[in-house]
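PROTEIN DESIGN WORKSHEET
SECTION A - STRUCTURE
LENGTH: 441
TOKENS:
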């Protein structure tokens, strides 16, 4: 039976292949470079310090001549020329919204958007992601924002698909009520909330499948491939993950229903240009299957706070460059972890997500939840790395299980861990935390 809705939300853009991106983006890229050189005090200073003559930027290949932009620069710039900061490239009267996110330094990061930024970039990309995840005009979506500062933007993206937006906040009773009494059939939230909500449903003595959830979309953290089978089986729904960053676009990547679990599609064609660089040499890498590196984003049509070559600190692997059966033509990636979160144990790079992945394969003896404990500042850790592992439904012999987990980590990730089995680790409605610092910062 043929689906009554179109295959892709924006077929013209989403069907563009990796080979066609340069031609699609070049004119927008050159216009954006010219725009920031004329409108952004931040980039005017940055180009001057780099001794860069923007008239020498002639094509898409010249993007490597531009300096990188990093988050610490934005924190410094936002203290100048409020609102937002010296990287604001429009007049205050053109701003429609300023978001603030919780900063790791205690100082919020501010994001300024014009009306076009909201509708043509963030909402457009979110709509592409949601559509690829199965949301359609007949969907009623319980919307629990994956980040507080993008709540309104996700509302606009959901509504752009033609679906009904049903905001509830992190209130389990309201979420349950929406599904039980209001006919809601889809959910958008963080990965952590999926597990939390399932636990609350089961505590209430309800059958998750009777809630009528057919589509679940979300992201903002890793671990989807670990929890996906449990959530899909329990609710009888399809589950897809997306990823982006507020500074550029809330959603740049998203899985499709057809090939979920095999990588996230690049879906911000015409909105954000993506590079992959070597995180240590800063060299731009060819986007081809198997390549690994750090994602770097360049906004193509942003007005309020345009950023060029913005380093994401996300370490990824390209898993495919072939056109997918869903119709998307761009490449797909797998997230390996945050470069900022990477630890080294006797010279071996360790990503918390990789540890979680290895441990989770021992379910149901373990739940899959872990907590890496750091006793000293810095990324270099003296072995053994301390890892708390939450027990599952059928742990069996705990002494043997502890030894098995340590052996699996040693075998798969090539470093020594000291595992502590615990009955329960903290549960999170918002983002799960894989690292706990035992020292005072």
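SECTION B - SEQUENCE
RESIDUE ASSIGNMENT:
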């Amino acid at each position: 039976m043929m689906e009554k809705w179109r295959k892709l939300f924006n077929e013209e853009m989403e069907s563009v292949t990796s080979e066609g991106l340069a031609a699609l983006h070049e004119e927008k890229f050159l216009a954006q470079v010219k725009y920031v050189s004329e409108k952004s005090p931040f980039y005017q200073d940055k180009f001057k310090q780099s001794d860069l003559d923007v008239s020498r930027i002639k094509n898409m290949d010249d993007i490597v001549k531009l300096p990188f932009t990093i988050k610490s620069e934005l924190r410094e710039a936002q203290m100048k020329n409020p609102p937002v900061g010296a990287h604001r490239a429009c007049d205050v009267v053109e701003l429609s919204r300023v978001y603030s996110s919780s900063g790791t330094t205690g100082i919020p990061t501010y994001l300024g958007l014009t009306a076009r930024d909201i509708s043509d970039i963030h909402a457009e990309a979110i709509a592409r992601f949601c559509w690829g995840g199965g949301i359609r005009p007949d969907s009623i979506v319980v919307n629990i924002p994956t980040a507080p500062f993008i709540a309104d933007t996700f509302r606009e993206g959901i509504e752009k698909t033609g679906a009904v937006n049903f905001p509830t906040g992190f209130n389990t009773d309201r979420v349950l009520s929406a599904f039980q009494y209001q006919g809601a059939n889809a959910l958008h939230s963080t990965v952590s909330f999926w597990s939390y909500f399932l636990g609350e449903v089961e505590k209430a003595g309800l059958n998750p499948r009777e809630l009528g959830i057919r589509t679940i979309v979300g992201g903002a953290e890793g671990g989807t491939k670990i929890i996906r089978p449990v959530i899909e089986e329990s609710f009888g729904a399809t589950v897809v993950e997306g990823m982006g960053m507020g500074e550029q676009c809330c959603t740049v990547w998203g899985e499709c229903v057809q090939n979920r679990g095999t990588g996230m599609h690049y879906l911000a064609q015409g909105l954000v240009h993506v590079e992959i660089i070597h995180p240590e040499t800063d060299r731009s890498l060819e986007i081809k299957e198997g390549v690994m590196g750090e994602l770097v984003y360049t906004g193509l049509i942003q007005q309020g706070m345009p950023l060029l070559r913005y380093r994401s600190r996300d370490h990824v692997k390209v898993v495919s460059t072939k056109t997918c059966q869903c119709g998307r033509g761009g490449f797909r990636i797998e997230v390996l972890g945050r470069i900022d979160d990477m630890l080294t144990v006797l010279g071996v790079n360790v990503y918390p997500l990789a540890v979680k992945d290895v441990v989770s394969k021992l379910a149901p003896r373990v739940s899959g939840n872990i907590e890496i404990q750091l006793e000293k500042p810095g990324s270099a850790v003296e072995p053994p790395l301390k890892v708390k592992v939450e027990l599952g439904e059928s742990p069996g012999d705990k002494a043997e299980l502890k030894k098995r987990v340590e052996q699996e980590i040693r075998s798969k990730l090539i470093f020594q861990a000291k595992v502590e089995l615990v009955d329960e680790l903290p549960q999170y409605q918002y983002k799960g935390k894989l690292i706990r610092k035992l020292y005072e910062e």
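SECTION C - NOTES
The chain has eleven helices and 21 strands.
The mean pLDDT is 90.
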